[in-house]
Amino acid sequence: MAKKLNDLSALGAFAYSTNDDVYFDNGETEEETLPNNKQNLEAIFSNKGRGGKTVTIIRGFIGSDNDLKALGKLLKNKCGVGGSIKDGEIIIQGKHRDKIMEILKKENYKVKRVGG
Description:
- 22% of the residues lie in helices and 22% in strands.
- It is an alpha+beta fold.
- The chain has a single domain (30-114), classed as Translation Initiation Factor Eif1 (2-Layer Sandwich).
């Protein structure tokens, strides 16, 4: 199926104009981070879809990506393990749910244990 040239979405994610009066907004806004004591986080133990490898997942964080990355870095450093941040979740390698819950409570986060 041929793309319509007058359809901006067919042109891709970028738009360029030499006109200074034109402003394009891609709809993405930086989300404001809630204070630690207003965050409702969930600590989940999982090994599904990871070839049997165990991970601890922290989800429910409301805020900017930079603040989420900073929290993920703090947790990885305190546990001494690796991990990543994907789709708004912090994934920590290994079974460290109880230790992570203690760290988050010391940082004044509300965290609850989910699952077995």
